[in-house]
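Consider the following assembly input.
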Amino acid sequence: MWAFILKRLLVALGVALTISVLSFSLLQISGDLAIAIGGPEATAEQVEQIRQEFGLDRPLIQQFGAWLWNAAQFDFGRSYYYQSSVMELVAERLPVTLTLGFLSLAIAICVSIPLGVAAALKRGSWIDRVAMAIAVTGQAMPNFWFGLTLIIVFAVNLQWFPAAGSESWKGYVLPAIALGYYATPAMMRLTRSGMLEVLQSDYIRTARAKGLSTTSVVFKHALRNAVIPVVALAAVELGFMLGGSVVIETVFSLRGLGHLAWSAISRNDYPVVQAVVLIIALFYIVLTLLADILNAALDPRLRTR
Amino acid sequence: MSNNISTGITNTSAPLLKVTNLQVKLPVAAGTLNAVRGIDFEVQRGEMLCIVGESGCGKSMTSMALMGLLPQRANITASQLNFDGAELLSLTERQRSGLRGSRMAMIFQEPMTALNPAYTLGNQLCEVLRRHRKVSRQQAKERAIYLLGKVGISAAEERLDQYPHQLSGGLRQRIMIAMALMCEPDLIIADEPTTALDVTIQAQILRLLRDLQREFGTAIIFITHDLGVVARIADRVAVMYAGEIVETADTTTLFNAPQHPYTQGLINCIPTPGKTPPGSRLQAIPGVVPSLIGEVKGCAFRNRCSRAEERCTTAPALIQATQAHAVRCHFATSPVPSTAIPCEVLHESHQR
């Protein structure tokens, strides 16, 4: 098991390094940085001065080394737009995004797995049809529209939750539902099809032949095997929710990473964009690593590979 | 009826399992599949009954019906399905699952997929005992180690922490046998347990099952399509064809004096060293098994039978040739000239 984790860790490190190269190149291909920093009114001398000040006249490999060294210490430089370091901006918004992401994932898991199991057990019944209806609407509905609907119903009409802001936990409820609903269909379908397949398998017949209770057959023997692909999917979904919740963060005026990235892109604030891209990529790497480890814990066959 | 001589086990009283007029119907797209069409048989305590027949004859359906493992859409009826005094069909699902694994256990054809890949062997072995008996974890583990030794698995204690994928097919089937024995069941149903294994492993597993059956006094219903296997291990044989039992007899009688043309045909298909000329074509029964979707009229074997005549269009009754020998054929009472190979020859040819 430890050898497996170590191997995965090395792979993850390799991926992280590759992504840092891409992230660094992003800044380089965006044009002459000195001109970008100087702004449209800067004279040629000023641009030259900026170029020297920021070390932009040095060879690329040196610039990359310096940037990577700083990035490893969580120093991504200063924002072009705000008068603060990039890391401060990120640190301020990260908790919002993390809270939203994990809450959404929790909602998605709590809905999709029980529903998927129930749909598989009672295939063709009303609960299966309800589950399918939830899946289809969840996949077909744009999540900004669903977010707005939630605001109209629960914030404007019923006034149960605030329409915007992250001051209290209440502010997270509606966006987490909106985002969680978005992640539910795929996980639910995968649980359902996984359960259907596993329930047909020989080892489930063996479990029944042993006289085990339905609970033991379904939860101990079937679900554990059916849920393995769902774990990998959940990791990807969480990565997506951490990085791609721009729309929901905007709808609910949550000041998270997605929101920061979106505004930084529109302002050509490249150091911020670069940092956000790198951080989100690192999230993906960590989550994939965690999913691999969790899968290996669930499926002993993976450990020996 | 059928007093069992060959095992030497004295039957205490009633048979362990008594099946009368068992029928299994399955709804399929084309209509109703009459998988099992009214079969009768008994299993005595401690005896090895072989049910033999080709694919689709209903032998697996019979075993699944006995275990109560058929899907709910299957329609199972019987005048009697009596297991040691209990009418299986009138039990609740809860009561039946209390019998499964505890008093009647099953070994399946595919050892490679019959074990759950996610749990250790120890977990899967102990689970069945702890489900049915009040024993501690430690006691269950000791029983598992004891039985792994019995089924010929070395280093039993370390094996308990291994996973199925770390074992070969032969070892996995030994695990399945140990698992079936965990609660000391009265009856084990073995559904083609050696079919998926290499020939050498097959012989080992057969011997093992035979030895364990004698040691623990467990009755075994052994389902197979291989008459060679039957000759080696059976006390009594039931030959199934198209959802019916066409002939039942003790093993010696069946091989020496088969009465049903289908049984005779099956036995003639087996090549015998020294008797079958080298290079000659192997015998086969012409024709195909009739479809069991919808009613089968008359004798199901008549379109493949060389002796078929007018009266075969009516269904033959089960005729008691001798006390322990029943045949479902109109010709059964008239003695048939035996074309079969003597049982001893067959025994020899398969023991090598």
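Chain A has a mean pLDDT of 86. Ask yourself how this observation constrains the way the partners meet.
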